[in-house]
Amino acid sequence: MKFKSTWPESVASRMYYWAFDCLFNASAEAAEKIFSSEINQHIDAAVVQELPEFYVEILARACKHLPRPSEDTGE
Hints:
Elements: H1 9-12, E1 17-25, E2 32-34, H2 39-48, E3 55-63
Antiparallel strand pairs: 1-2, 1-3
């Protein structure tokens, strides 16, 4: 089964991967930036603290790797 991209072809041809911008805390007003790999740790900490609720925000954006600068050593 082949999945069809939901991105317009003009965007899909220029982007290579998804990046995720994440925020987490007990409330939206206090939310701080975290890495997506840390979401489970923050949820576990909220459970340990017995928080009645928490705020998590995950925004996806299409990205493209930038070329690395050339390492001209001048030799």
